[in-house]
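Retro notes - structure team

What went well: the batch runner handled both jobs without manual restarts.
What didn't: labels got mixed up in the shared folder, which is why I'm recording both outputs here explicitly, each with its sequence directly above its tokens.

Job 1
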Amino acid sequence: MTDSPTETAKEAEPTKEAEPTFRGDVTVELVKHSAADSDVLWAARVSTAGEQSLEEITKDPERSKGLINYLMRDRHGSPFEHNSMTFFISAPIFVFREFMRHRVGWSYNEESGRYRELQPVFYVPDAERKLVQEGRPGKYVFVEGTEAQHELTTRVMESTYREAYEAYQEMLAAGVAREVARSVLPVGLFSSMYATCNARSLMHFLGLRTQHEQAAVPSFPQREIEMVGEKMEAEWAKLMPLTYAAFNKNGRVAP
């Protein structure tokens, strides 16, 4: 059977190089979970009451609230580990490099530039991103940039990204291995990963990577990882409202 003229033409068409995309946001999706306040209660009460049914554990809402707050306040942390949340996260590579500092209670699987061609999606700060750092290390603040600084940042980043991705494509087209060619790509490239944690490890993460008016210990996160943290926090708050309320009430310090 011979190909139709249309099919032959399609096969002969050169592959069109993808145009770079520039983003100022991040993606966080809750993929799956086994996480509820009852998980905390079940784990905590086994030490004094042995095995109990879910109905028995949750029959007194005020008692449940009080127990979770007690555990949080007095830093009995292990009952907060008997749950699981898996998030799909798409963010710049430099965000993931900060993420990897959180190792206890976390599991990660990130897309690989060795095994797939990386797509040209790059981070460019939006107009709300504060650009200027004032003060010395350990005691500094970020302030709004000028219109000229924002224009410069956008222009330079976009042109640099385009040049880097063109070099990457040129190397791939010449037969250079993906794991070698990826070396020319900047940390502003978007990557994606699955990140799995429990409530205790997530609280440690949020305590360091977000700013909050109820935090007993101040934190100074980079804005981009804070954006990820805020989205993860919103999902967790819906799953475990009693635990989330106790976390805030007790200064956002992980038990």
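Job 2
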Amino acid sequence: MLRGLRRRWAAYRYRFVPWLALNLRRQRRTLRYVPESSQDKIIPDEDVLETLLKVFAALFANDLGRQAPVLAVRPEIRRKYEEPAPAEPRRSEEGARSQRALGPQEVLFQALGFGLARGRSSLPAAGTGVFVSRGGARRGAVVAMYPGTVYRKHEPIFFQSLGNPFIFRCIDGVLIDGNDKGLSKAVYRSCSRRDQLGPFQMSDVSWLTAIPQNSLARGQYINNCSAHMRKQPTCVIRNLMCQDAFQ
């Protein structure tokens, strides 16, 4: 039992903020050395922005029926999405309804050519992971986002970090809490309601559910490598709000 507890602590301590504060300086080997943040980018910012705009535009066009507040304020957006392109024939009303009725996974597949699914990993003791469920993602493509509450260096996160394996620490000290349960979930919902401007939501809260409206918002479940696998290739998700990743 003690051996099992030690293994769990060894995997969790890098997410436990008090332990990080006391031990980070003494264990510099756990940090990757990056002389400048601009040298730590796998994908150029322009490519990331292009991918996100493509996905978000497709999701918006697929759900025009619920975008009445935005379309009322910006009528030019309504014309852009509702009028067909000159080379395309005008869709029938049933065709338009069926186009809007697509699920987020189908929208992601049509926009980027792949779909994502969350499920049990086949690796021993790896827990839940994220898989390409259909299609294929090319090397170097943006495949996921890391959603969550962003904490700056001076903001408290002690209670949220207790037993929380989803604390993502960037090299610049910013922490992202991607936990979709418990206290972390309540904090994110509270911040989302606080920042809402009338009918306009400033953030997506659907990633807290089993079926996120943005299918890319699954990055917190992508597994990083363990200590004994560090020398082997691994897929490490980079937070799109912070260029430098920890571990």
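One thing worth noting from job 2: The chain has two domains: 1-25+103-247, 48-102.
We'll revisit the folder naming next retro.
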